[in-house]
Specification:
Strand content: under 5%
Shape: elongated
Structural class: mainly alpha
Largest sheet: 2 strands, antiparallel
CATH topology of one domain: Histone, subunit A
Number of helices: 3
């Protein structure tokens, strides 16, 4: 018999805003019991001498330093655009908006 009662599963379903028919409550109670058993096994293996980790391998930051560099000017950027107008990109009008 699962340690989770049908009432507890029904309560969890209400919290998750799920509608579960009565015939499915026992089925989900069994499935949740299997999940809780697996979590209990992991808890038994992880002893006090094992440090908690978020990743099995050590991670290091491989990004470059944040240094200011000169960028492109407005004219250079607009030179590569298919169309420009008044110093801005010109794009097709969408959704029938009026100018």
């Amino acid at each position: 018999m699962p340690s989770l009662s049908r009432d507890e599963v029904a309560h969890l379903a209400r919290l998750a805003r799920l509608h579960l028919p009565d015939d499915e409550l026992a089925h989900y109670a069994e499935q949740l019991e299997v999940i809780l058993g697996a979590v209990a096994q992991v808890s038994e293996v992880a002893g006090a001498d094992v440090a908690p980790t978020s990743h099995p391998l050590p991670l290091r930051n491989v990004t470059r330093p944040d240094e200011a560099r000169p960028g492109l000017g407005q004219e250079a950027v607009l030179a590569g655009a298919p169309a420009s107008e008044e110093g801005r990109f010109r794009v097709p009008r969408i959704l029938g908006e009026e100018a």
